[in-house]
Every structure is written in structure tokens, then in C-alpha cells.
Amino acid sequence: xxxxxxxxxxxxxxxxxxxxxxxxxxxxxxxxxxxxxxxxxxxxxxxxxxxxxxxxxxxxxxxxxxxxxxxxxxxxxxxxxxxxxxxxxxxxxxxxxxxxxxxxxxxxxxxxxxxxxxxxxxxxxxxxxxxxxxxxxxxxxxxxxxxxxxxxxxxxxxxxxxxxxxxxxxxxxxxxxxxxxxxxxxxxxxxxxxxxxxxxxxxxxxxxxxxxxxxxxxxxxxxxxxxxxxxxxxxxxxxxxxxxxxxxxxxxxxxxxxxxxxxxxxxxxxxxxxxxxxxxxxxxxxxxxxxxxxxxxxxxxxxxxxxxxxxxxxxxxxxxxxxxxxxxxxxxxxxxxxxxxxxxxxxxxxxxxxxxxxxxxxxxxxxxxxxxxxxxxxxxxxxxxxxxxxxxxxxxxxxxxxxxxxxxxxxxxxxxxxxxxxxxxxxxxxxxxxxxxxxxxxxxxxxxxxxxxxxxxxxxxxxxxxxxxxxxxxxxxxxxxxxxxxxxxxxxxxxxxxxx
Length: 500
Fold this sequence. Notes:
The protein is an alpha+beta fold and about 500 residues long. It contains 15 helices and eight strands. It folds into two domains: about 15-275, no CATH class; about 310-495, 2-Layer Sandwich (Alpha-Beta Plaits), CATH 3.30.70. Strand 7 and strand 8 (about 490-495) form a beta hairpin. It is rod-shaped and about 125 Å long.
């Protein structure tokens, strides 16, 4: 199980907690920068100390207590004291709850500053008191700014935390109560309305030089605030999209080991969760196909999995093909002399010797039948000169077995029957169990020809149809017509292997 992004270094519990405190301190940092800019524009540096102390009391103390309370469940899970299912609902609500805590602390702070001179506080500076519309706008917009900023900063924090928990604990979000469009609406609405609200309040409150000064200050602060919100907004919302895109590219490259951390409670998180389910299904399908290919020839598996008809089965295909049946000579007597385990090992070695020969010549092994097999040439895998390929494969099998070492120094001879004729490739069976096979009189004849080896004392027999199609009369001896059970009329057979 791997994430699409490079694995982040493991974090100590203290680091996880400190980063959350850092996220919650973001409003204080912005507040300090904004007040420094305000003091510079109004040339009243003496107010800085008073304002920063006030901000420290309300934001650091108040937010610090709230942050400690909100992060406790997460730390309990990290410490192994709670299950993820218990912590998950609180994690999902963490951005919203964090924004509420910041709103509770920042609104009184901004209100005290805006209306301080109305109640007799000057903070050591002789500033003209703000007009009421400007003061109200400052409190409302400032509080909303801190709320929006906190919401997206904590979302970005959670994105990294979820990824860390996925990599280290193997857990992912399963709650998707959020809505992506609500998050986008929140950010866009604030970015669109904040500046206009402040500017409208300045126009309604001041005129002349005071209007220019206040408007310039508010425009500067609004643009700075918008840039900060946009950065955290894009970071919180686009990282899951980039992660999902990277995961899809990994899938396109046939990497089914990839899994995504689910880092948001909205449609993007749900999409990441569905992505993981999809990859698991694709991995299982690939595993089944790989396993299926070990039991059924790869060509047959491809036909069944990729060339399906409306019924879900492989399309029936009719073609001329060359059929081959093999059987080990004296296998029944050999089975009585050795243990079942030795017989199994012997068969595996034998099949491991002859199957690659058939495949090298373009044949397809359709079935293993006891100590023998049924192979076909030209169906389901198209093959030119299939009759010649089958004869060459039979000769190579004979040569290979003569030189191959087997357990207990047992020498194995294989009887082979070959026939060429029209067949049909079909899927047979029930809804619960299917088998792909070849049917037709040519298949029956090939099977009976293999058995005729006992009658003629041969190892490789081929029907005249195969010898003629392969142009192999020069290496074959005509033995005459033979009666084939289940076939109307006699079949002319040839011994394969006679030197011209």
C-alpha cells in the first residue's frame, strides 16, 4: 500500500501538536503585520506595544486554550489511547471548530480597538476616532478574515496530517459531510466582498485627506489579506486534486499498488476513497487474470476477458485448426511403482518440458487430461502453416523427452496424435462455471489417432489431412486407412518421423 506522493518523514507526536498550534496562531501573525502597517501609515508607532499586548492576551491565551482543547482527541489517537473511529468525527469538524474559537477571540479584540476611543482608551496615541460605519466594517470584515484564514490554514494542516496518518497508521477518512462548493463559495465571497465593504465604509465615513489615508490603508490591508487567503485556499483545495491526478497517471502506467490518502471530507475526499476502491478492484482483476492465465492459456484468457459478446462469454469462432493429443506410454504401470507425490512431481516436470515446445511453435494448450494434454494450432491463436507447426512441435517433443532427465531416472515416451480439420471454439457450461474448448469431429479424430499409436506401435501418428496441409509427405510413412470410433469412414494415418 503506497501513497502517490513521496512519503513524508515520520513525525513525533509533539510535532503534530506544535504544527496545529502554529496553524491557530496564524491570525495573531497576520494581526501583528497588519497593525505594524497601520502604525507605519499613520505614523503612530507608540500604539504597537499596546495593541500587540492586547492581541497576545486575547489571541494567544484564548486561542491557545481552545486549540489545546480541540487537538486533545487527535493526540489521544496518536498516543494509542483512542480508536480512529472515535476521533474521526472531531477531526472532520476541526477546521470549523477552530474558526469558531478564533472568531470568539478575535471579534472582541477588533471591537475594542475600533471603539476604544469611544470609551476613553487612546493606547498612547492621538488618533482621530474612526467613524461608526468604518468601525463596524473593520470589526465585521476583520473577524471574517480571521475566520476564513483559520478555516483554510487548518484544512491545509489536516491535509498533511491525514497523509501522515495514512502512511503511518493505514487509516483514511470515511465521513464525507462537507461540500466542495461551500468551501469555494466561502473563499470567493470573502475575497469579492471584503475590499468593497471596507472601501464603501470609508466613503460613507470620511472625505478629503482622511478618506485617501483610510482608503489607502484598507486597500493595502485588503489586498494583503486576499493574497494570504488565496494562498491557503489554493493549498487546502488543490493538493487533493493534484494527488488524485498523480494517482490516475500511476494507474495509466499499470501500477496497481498505489493508494491515496483521503484528506478532505467533501467530494474530493469521496473521489479519493472511490479511487482506492477502484484500484483494489483493478488489482484484483489483474490478479485474477494472471492466475487465470496459469490455468488457461493466455490467448484463451484474453479471448474470454476482452472479446466478450453480449452474454459475457467469448464469441464462438469457427476455423480450420490442427489438433494434437498426447499421452504418456506406460503411465498406468509407472503409477503403481512410485508414490503419488513422486507421480505429481514427474508429471509437473514432464509438462514443464513439453508445454514450452508447443507454445514455441505457436500452439495453445487447451486442457490437461490426466497424463496427457490437448493442444491446438490456429485456434484460438491464429497461426499460418499450423499443420506444419504441429508436426514440428511433435518431433521436437520426441527429441526433447529423449534427452530430458526425470526423477528416478525414468524414461518417458509420449504417444502423439495429430489431425487437421474444421472446429469451433466455444464457451460451454453454466452461469457459475464456464469452460472454453474446441468442438468438432476433427477433435474426436485427433484423440482416436493418438490411441491408434498402440495399434501401430508408433509414437507420432498424423492424419492424411495434416500431412497434406503441412507438405510433410517426405518425412512421413503412410500406414493405411484405419477405423476411427465415432467417425464415419476410415481415416488414412501416417507415421511421422521417417527420413526421406
